[in-house]
Amino acid sequence: MAHHHPRADLPARRRGGPRLSSRRAPDRLPGIVDSHAHLQHARFDDDREAVLERARAAGVVRVLVPGWDLASSEAALALAVRHPDLVHAAVGVHPHDAGNMDERSWARLEALARDPQTSAIGEIGLDYHRNLSAPDVQREAFGRQLALAVARGLPVLVHDREAHADVTAALLAHPGRGILHAFSGDAAMAAALSEAGYLVSFALPVAFRSASGPRAAAASLPDGTFVVETDAPYLGPDRDRRNEPTTVLRVAAEVARLRHTAPESLVGPIGEAYRSIIG
């Protein structure tokens, strides 16, 4: 069911700073949402059901599962069919995989976008850090998928790594809505795209003391304009261990600390923001 992701050989967390701030997460946070987790990944093949049960037990009520290529998009849809009470699915082609698309592949993606289980187009965007696909190919794929989202009336889940200016320009020109996945920009970028109707999603790197831009954004954005995520199996608290949706409680705790409030106070606004975009 799950398929190999081209990022599977990367560390569990991206380099964002050597130290995590120490914020103890609650054991349960009823009503919390994980806005981005690749639960169809092969690293969950041995215990996927147990991972979902742990998420439920921790209070997680929704997990948005994005694709990164055609096979993983199909697998995300299958998970949403099996777990309609918990999983939302998105279909899309990650910038790393943009160079693998031909016209038959694009036609298949358009068909997947018409599936009634499809809640969003994603994970799409630009990644100038590794350039596993050429930047011009990435930009073309991003543009095609933004247009597909408009055609289908769906939100987008946007990957942005070292491509802040181009991503911002594309989204400000895009008459749609969506979520900025694992936000790594600064407070000004967050404010501009929030004003344009996009949600900012924070992952565990917001706990890195060196992540000044995301931390400033997390502290300053109004309630109802941001969500939290894990990007499981990536971006975990331990470089060598797989991440999973229960870590979203730790992310919420860190964002709450930056906002001088309790994690429980974020659950309602995060849930409302998520539902306003995803449903």
What would you say this structure looks like, in words?
The protein is of the alpha/beta class and 279 residues long. It has helices at residues 48-57, 70-82, 103-113, 135-152, 164-172, 187-195, 212-220, 248-258, 263-277; strands at residues 32-34, 60-66, 87-91, 118-127, 156-161, 178-180, 198-202, 226-228. Strands 1-2-3-4-5-6-7-8 form an eight-stranded parallel β-sheet. Helix 6 (187-195) packs across helix 7 (212-220) and helix 8 crosses helix 9.
List the helices and strands and how they pair.
Blueprint: E1 32-34, H1 48-57, E2 60-66, H2 70-82, E3 87-91, H3 103-113, E4 118-127, H4 135-152, E5 156-161, H5 164-172, E6 178-180, H6 187-195, E7 198-202, H7 212-220, E8 226-228, H8 248-258, H9 263-277
Secondary structure class reads: alpha/beta
Strand content: 15-25%
Q: Biggest sheet, open or closed, and with what strands and sense?
A: 8 strands, parallel
Helix content: 25-40%
Query: How many H/I helical runs?
Result: 9
Low-confidence runs of at least 5 consecutive residues: 1-21
Assembly type: single chain
Order of helices and strands: EHEHEHEHEHEHEHEHH
Rg value: 17 Å
Shape: globular
**Average pLDDT figure:** 92
Sequence of strands across the biggest β-sheet: 1-2-3-4-5-6-7-8
Distance between the termini: 25 Å
Strand tally? 8
